[in-house]
Prior knowledge:
By secondary structure, this protein is α/β, with parallel strands linked by helices. It is about 35% helix and about 25% strand.
Amino acid sequence: xxxxxxxxxxxxxxxxxxxxxxxxxxxxxxxxxxxxxxxxxxxxxxxxxxxxxxxxxxxxxxxxxxxxxxxxxxxxxxxxxxxxxxxxxxxxxxxxxxxxxxxxxxxxxxxxxxxxxxxxxxxxxxxxxxxxxxxxxxxxxxxxxxxxxxxxxxxxxxxxxxxxxxxxxxxxxxxxxxxxxxxxxxxxxxxxxxxxxxxxxxxxxxxxxxxxxxxxxxxxxxxxxxxxxxxxxxxxxxxxxxxxxxxxxxxxxxxxxxxxxxxxxxxxxxxxxxxxxxxx
Length: 280
Protein backbone atom coordinates (compact mmCIF):
# COMPACT_ATOMS: atom_id res chain seq x y z
CA UNK A 1 0.00 0.00 0.00
CA UNK A 2 1.32 3.46 -0.93
CA UNK A 3 1.98 5.89 1.87
CA UNK A 4 -0.56 8.73 1.96
CA UNK A 5 0.64 12.13 0.79
CA UNK A 6 0.00 14.73 3.47
CA UNK A 7 0.90 18.41 3.34
CA UNK A 8 0.83 21.09 6.03
CA UNK A 9 0.65 24.62 4.62
CA UNK A 10 1.41 27.87 6.43
CA UNK A 11 3.77 29.15 9.08
CA UNK A 12 7.10 27.68 10.15
CA UNK A 13 8.57 29.40 13.21
CA UNK A 14 11.06 29.19 15.99
CA UNK A 15 9.17 28.95 19.28
CA UNK A 16 11.33 30.86 21.73
CA UNK A 17 10.49 29.31 25.09
CA UNK A 18 11.95 30.50 28.40
CA UNK A 19 14.63 27.81 28.53
CA UNK A 20 15.30 27.09 24.86
CA UNK A 21 14.34 27.66 21.23
CA UNK A 22 12.52 24.96 19.27
CA UNK A 23 11.32 24.61 15.71
CA UNK A 24 7.56 24.79 15.38
CA UNK A 25 4.51 26.23 13.69
CA UNK A 26 1.29 24.27 13.35
CA UNK A 27 1.80 23.09 9.74
CA UNK A 28 5.34 21.81 10.33
CA UNK A 29 4.34 20.19 13.64
CA UNK A 30 1.45 18.48 11.84
CA UNK A 31 3.73 17.34 9.01
CA UNK A 32 6.28 15.98 11.49
CA UNK A 33 3.78 13.83 13.37
CA UNK A 34 2.12 12.67 10.15
CA UNK A 35 5.56 11.57 8.95
CA UNK A 36 6.20 9.64 12.16
CA UNK A 37 2.86 7.93 11.69
CA UNK A 38 3.86 6.66 8.26
CA UNK A 39 2.78 9.37 5.82
CA UNK A 40 4.73 10.82 2.94
CA UNK A 41 4.61 14.21 4.57
CA UNK A 42 5.59 17.70 3.38
CA UNK A 43 5.61 21.08 5.14
CA UNK A 44 4.92 23.97 2.75
CA UNK A 45 6.16 27.30 4.09
CA UNK A 46 8.88 29.92 3.70
CA UNK A 47 12.01 30.94 5.59
CA UNK A 48 14.42 33.80 5.15
CA UNK A 49 17.74 33.85 3.33
CA UNK A 50 19.38 34.30 6.71
CA UNK A 51 21.28 32.22 9.25
CA UNK A 52 18.08 31.28 11.05
CA UNK A 53 16.57 30.17 7.75
CA UNK A 54 19.51 27.84 7.11
CA UNK A 55 19.21 26.57 10.66
CA UNK A 56 15.51 25.91 10.02
CA UNK A 57 16.28 23.78 6.98
CA UNK A 58 18.97 21.89 8.88
CA UNK A 59 16.64 21.30 11.82
CA UNK A 60 13.88 20.01 9.55
CA UNK A 61 16.30 17.56 7.95
CA UNK A 62 17.50 16.48 11.39
CA UNK A 63 13.91 15.60 12.31
CA UNK A 64 13.45 13.72 9.03
CA UNK A 65 11.21 16.31 7.37
CA UNK A 66 11.26 16.99 3.65
CA UNK A 67 12.43 20.50 2.80
CA UNK A 68 11.97 20.80 -0.97
CA UNK A 69 8.76 22.83 -0.53
CA UNK A 70 10.21 25.24 2.03
CA UNK A 71 10.77 28.44 0.07
CA UNK A 72 13.36 31.10 0.84
CA UNK A 73 12.85 34.84 0.36
CA UNK A 74 14.27 38.17 1.51
CA UNK A 75 12.09 38.50 4.62
CA UNK A 76 13.42 37.25 7.98
CA UNK A 77 12.76 33.77 9.31
CA UNK A 78 9.86 33.75 11.76
CA UNK A 79 10.19 33.79 15.54
CA UNK A 80 7.44 33.44 18.13
CA UNK A 81 7.98 34.45 21.76
CA UNK A 82 6.27 31.82 23.94
CA UNK A 83 5.26 32.31 27.55
CA UNK A 84 4.12 29.30 29.58
CA UNK A 85 1.80 29.66 32.56
CA UNK A 86 1.92 27.50 35.69
CA UNK A 87 -0.06 24.75 33.93
CA UNK A 88 2.26 24.73 30.91
CA UNK A 89 -0.32 26.49 28.69
CA UNK A 90 1.42 28.71 26.11
CA UNK A 91 0.64 32.25 25.01
CA UNK A 92 2.37 33.63 21.93
CA UNK A 93 3.76 36.91 20.61
CA UNK A 94 4.15 36.38 16.89
CA UNK A 95 6.56 38.70 15.09
CA UNK A 96 5.29 40.22 11.84
CA UNK A 97 6.62 40.76 8.29
CA UNK A 98 8.38 37.40 8.15
CA UNK A 99 9.14 34.99 5.33
CA UNK A 100 5.90 32.99 5.42
CA UNK A 101 3.91 36.20 5.02
CA UNK A 102 5.11 36.00 1.41
CA UNK A 103 4.42 32.28 0.83
CA UNK A 104 3.91 31.55 -2.87
CA UNK A 105 1.79 28.96 -4.66
CA UNK A 106 4.59 27.90 -6.99
CA UNK A 107 3.99 25.45 -9.85
CA UNK A 108 5.92 22.83 -7.87
CA UNK A 109 3.72 23.27 -4.80
CA UNK A 110 0.55 23.18 -6.88
CA UNK A 111 1.71 19.95 -8.53
CA UNK A 112 2.29 18.44 -5.08
CA UNK A 113 -1.20 19.52 -4.05
CA UNK A 114 -2.80 17.65 -6.95
CA UNK A 115 -1.60 14.34 -5.47
CA UNK A 116 -2.26 15.10 -1.80
CA UNK A 117 -4.49 12.80 0.23
CA UNK A 118 -4.69 15.44 2.96
CA UNK A 119 -3.98 19.14 3.24
CA UNK A 120 -4.00 20.93 6.60
CA UNK A 121 -3.92 24.70 7.05
CA UNK A 122 -4.94 27.33 9.58
CA UNK A 123 -5.79 31.00 9.91
CA UNK A 124 -2.52 32.52 11.11
CA UNK A 125 -0.56 32.31 7.85
CA UNK A 126 -3.47 34.02 6.11
CA UNK A 127 -2.81 37.29 7.95
CA UNK A 128 -1.14 38.76 4.82
CA UNK A 129 -3.04 38.95 1.56
CA UNK A 130 -0.27 37.38 -0.60
CA UNK A 131 0.06 34.38 1.69
CA UNK A 132 -3.71 34.03 2.02
CA UNK A 133 -4.16 33.93 -1.74
CA UNK A 134 -1.40 31.35 -2.07
CA UNK A 135 -2.76 29.10 0.66
CA UNK A 136 -6.26 29.06 -0.79
CA UNK A 137 -4.86 28.40 -4.25
CA UNK A 138 -2.92 25.42 -2.88
CA UNK A 139 -5.98 24.08 -1.06
CA UNK A 140 -8.07 24.46 -4.20
CA UNK A 141 -5.56 22.33 -6.13
CA UNK A 142 -6.05 19.38 -3.76
CA UNK A 143 -8.51 16.75 -5.11
CA UNK A 144 -12.07 17.08 -3.84
CA UNK A 145 -11.98 13.49 -2.56
CA UNK A 146 -9.06 14.26 -0.23
CA UNK A 147 -9.22 15.37 3.39
CA UNK A 148 -9.12 19.16 3.66
CA UNK A 149 -8.44 20.02 7.28
CA UNK A 150 -8.90 23.55 8.59
CA UNK A 151 -7.11 23.44 11.96
CA UNK A 152 -8.19 26.94 12.78
CA UNK A 153 -5.55 27.99 15.37
CA UNK A 154 -6.81 31.52 16.06
CA UNK A 155 -3.90 33.67 17.17
CA UNK A 156 -3.97 37.25 18.51
CA UNK A 157 -5.87 39.50 16.08
CA UNK A 158 -4.85 37.68 12.89
CA UNK A 159 -8.27 36.63 11.64
CA UNK A 160 -11.64 37.96 10.54
CA UNK A 161 -14.88 36.61 9.12
CA UNK A 162 -13.57 36.59 5.55
CA UNK A 163 -10.52 34.49 6.45
CA UNK A 164 -12.55 32.01 8.49
CA UNK A 165 -15.46 31.68 6.07
CA UNK A 166 -13.32 31.26 2.95
CA UNK A 167 -11.46 28.39 4.61
CA UNK A 168 -14.59 26.77 6.03
CA UNK A 169 -16.09 26.73 2.53
CA UNK A 170 -13.10 24.67 1.37
CA UNK A 171 -12.72 22.36 4.39
CA UNK A 172 -14.33 19.00 5.05
CA UNK A 173 -12.74 18.69 8.50
CA UNK A 174 -12.64 21.49 11.07
CA UNK A 175 -10.64 21.37 14.29
CA UNK A 176 -11.07 23.99 17.00
CA UNK A 177 -10.92 24.35 20.77
CA UNK A 178 -13.13 25.74 23.52
CA UNK A 179 -11.78 29.27 23.08
CA UNK A 180 -12.19 29.25 19.32
CA UNK A 181 -15.67 27.73 19.05
CA UNK A 182 -17.63 30.73 20.44
CA UNK A 183 -15.60 33.12 18.26
CA UNK A 184 -16.38 31.13 15.11
CA UNK A 185 -20.07 30.74 16.00
CA UNK A 186 -20.38 34.48 16.55
CA UNK A 187 -18.55 35.35 13.32
CA UNK A 188 -20.73 32.94 11.33
CA UNK A 189 -23.96 33.87 13.20
CA UNK A 190 -24.60 30.22 14.11
CA UNK A 191 -25.97 28.74 17.32
CA UNK A 192 -23.93 25.59 17.89
CA UNK A 193 -21.78 22.78 16.57
CA UNK A 194 -24.57 21.00 14.64
CA UNK A 195 -25.36 24.23 12.78
CA UNK A 196 -21.67 24.71 11.98
CA UNK A 197 -21.35 21.16 10.63
CA UNK A 198 -24.49 21.57 8.51
CA UNK A 199 -23.72 25.06 7.22
CA UNK A 200 -20.34 24.02 5.81
CA UNK A 201 -21.11 20.37 4.98
CA UNK A 202 -18.31 19.12 7.22
CA UNK A 203 -17.39 15.46 7.30
CA UNK A 204 -15.96 15.82 10.81
CA UNK A 205 -15.71 18.58 13.40
CA UNK A 206 -13.08 17.98 16.08
CA UNK A 207 -13.67 19.91 19.29
CA UNK A 208 -10.99 19.90 21.99
CA UNK A 209 -11.24 21.20 25.55
CA UNK A 210 -7.69 20.92 26.82
CA UNK A 211 -7.33 18.96 30.04
CA UNK A 212 -11.07 18.19 30.12
CA UNK A 213 -12.09 16.20 27.03
CA UNK A 214 -12.47 16.17 23.26
CA UNK A 215 -15.28 15.28 20.88
CA UNK A 216 -15.76 14.39 17.24
CA UNK A 217 -18.96 15.35 15.43
CA UNK A 218 -20.32 14.47 12.01
CA UNK A 219 -23.52 15.24 10.09
CA UNK A 220 -25.28 12.69 12.30
CA UNK A 221 -24.23 14.49 15.50
CA UNK A 222 -21.79 13.45 18.23
CA UNK A 223 -19.67 10.49 17.13
CA UNK A 224 -17.09 10.19 19.91
CA UNK A 225 -16.33 11.68 23.33
CA UNK A 226 -13.08 10.96 25.22
CA UNK A 227 -11.90 12.42 28.51
CA UNK A 228 -8.37 13.80 28.32
CA UNK A 229 -5.83 11.50 30.04
CA UNK A 230 -4.41 12.92 33.24
CA UNK A 231 -0.65 13.17 32.66
CA UNK A 232 2.24 15.19 34.03
CA UNK A 233 2.17 18.11 31.59
CA UNK A 234 5.52 19.67 30.69
CA UNK A 235 4.03 21.94 28.04
CA UNK A 236 1.20 21.72 25.51
CA UNK A 237 3.08 23.19 22.53
CA UNK A 238 2.22 21.15 19.45
CA UNK A 239 -0.23 18.86 21.23
CA UNK A 240 -3.13 19.96 19.05
CA UNK A 241 -1.08 19.53 15.88
CA UNK A 242 -0.16 15.97 16.83
CA UNK A 243 -3.85 15.31 17.59
CA UNK A 244 -4.80 16.41 14.08
CA UNK A 245 -2.04 14.36 12.47
CA UNK A 246 -3.03 11.20 14.34
CA UNK A 247 -6.70 11.64 13.52
CA UNK A 248 -6.26 12.11 9.77
CA UNK A 249 -3.62 9.40 9.33
CA UNK A 250 -5.93 6.97 11.12
CA UNK A 251 -8.87 7.94 8.91
CA UNK A 252 -6.71 7.47 5.81
CA UNK A 253 -5.81 3.97 7.04
CA UNK A 254 -9.51 3.15 7.16
CA UNK A 255 -10.04 3.41 10.91
CA UNK A 256 -13.45 4.37 12.20
CA UNK A 257 -13.65 7.96 13.53
CA UNK A 258 -13.93 6.62 17.09
CA UNK A 259 -10.65 4.76 16.62
CA UNK A 260 -9.00 7.76 14.99
CA UNK A 261 -10.13 9.92 17.91
CA UNK A 262 -8.61 7.50 20.44
CA UNK A 263 -5.29 7.50 18.56
CA UNK A 264 -5.29 11.30 18.50
CA UNK A 265 -5.93 11.58 22.23
CA UNK A 266 -3.14 9.12 23.05
CA UNK A 267 -0.54 10.87 20.91
CA UNK A 268 -1.37 14.39 22.08
CA UNK A 269 -1.09 13.23 25.71
CA UNK A 270 2.43 11.95 25.00
CA UNK A 271 3.41 15.26 23.37
CA UNK A 272 2.25 17.13 26.48
CA UNK A 273 4.80 15.19 28.53
CA UNK A 274 7.78 16.56 26.59
CA UNK A 275 9.30 19.98 25.90
CA UNK A 276 8.35 21.31 22.46
CA UNK A 277 6.28 19.98 19.60
CA UNK A 278 8.82 17.60 18.06
CA UNK A 279 10.44 16.05 21.12
CA UNK A 280 9.10 12.51 20.51
